[in-house]
Amino acid sequence: MTGKRILPKEGRHAHRQDMRVFRGVEAWVFDLDNTLYPHEASLFPQINEQIARYVQKVLDLGRDEAMAHQKALYHEYGTTLRGLMTTHKIDPDDYLAFVHDIDYSSLAPDPDLGHAIEALPGKKFIFTNGDRPHAERTAAALGISDHFEDIFDIVSADLIPKPNKETYDMFLDRTGIAPARAAMFEDLAKNLKVPHHLGMRTALIVPKGSREVLQDNLDLEGDPYPHVDFVTEDLTGFLRAVKGSLI
């Protein structure tokens, strides 16, 4: 790896840089799904199920064929929505309402997360490939809505999803964030490539129990994740550690 090293383990965080790099950060950008709530909440599997049902309904496909088509669209276009808009001219509003018609009861208020976000200096944003109503319902269920300056959703991005650079450019233009003074938290490593290139600090949120496997990958010669500065399976604990490094 070039200029980076794995630092000693601290809690459940894999550090690839000194956490003092967060000093000077004044904008904290959070993805939504599987980032602000844990993977174990099983919210996103509901969304995936709804997406499959939508593809099945709109294209009149069998269940297995619909799921295969959904995955193909996702991999080719970045999101199933983008793929369906491009290949089948579907109504994006109809799609977004349908796929986010899910049960949020698996989410519980998370005051510890709320306090950790609130304690960070500067402004906080949600930046999601979902839509604003879904983000608002999710943040409300977690009890963290009041801690965010704004939500930048897929509609705000003209339906162009992360990791397209154009989407990040629109986000930065709307918020006025200086990338060199910002940090981004994501559950998908590919969505951290552009932020890292722009100069943001980057943190990857992984499911519980998977950090050790990923850290082994980070140690591999050739560094398959040069755009990931930090890895954690505990967002709340990591934010507390960040706050401590700012003192």
Quick summary of this structure?
The chain has helices at residues 44-59, 63-77, 80-88, 92-99, 111-119, 132-142, 165-175, 193-198, 211-218, 235-245; strands at residues 13-15, 27-30, 123-127, 150-152, 182-186, 201-205, 230-232. The protein is of the alpha/beta class.
Written account of the structure:
With 247 residues, the protein is an alpha/beta fold. It folds into two domains: 13-41 and 108-245, HAD superfamily/HAD-like (Rossmann fold, 3-Layer(aba) Sandwich); 44-99, DNA polymerase, domain 1 (Orthogonal Bundle), CATH 1.10.150.450. It is 42% helix and 11% strand. The chain is built from ten helices and seven strands. Helix 6 (132-142) links the parallel strand 3 and strand 4 (150-152). Helix 1 (44-59) packs across helix 2 (63-77) and helix 2 crosses helix 3 (80-88). The longest helix has 16 residues, at 44-59.
Walk across the major sheet and give the strand order. Answer: 1-7-6-5-2-3-4
- Runs in which pLDDT lies below 50 for 5 or more consecutive residues are 1-12, 216-222
CATH homolog superfamily of the largest domain: HAD superfamily/HAD-like
* End-to-end C-alpha gap: 29 Å
CATH first level of the largest domain: which class? Alpha Beta
**Helix vs. strand class:** alpha/beta
Kindly state the percentage of residues in helix.
40-55%
Estimated radius of gyration: 18 Å
How many domains make up the coordinates?
2
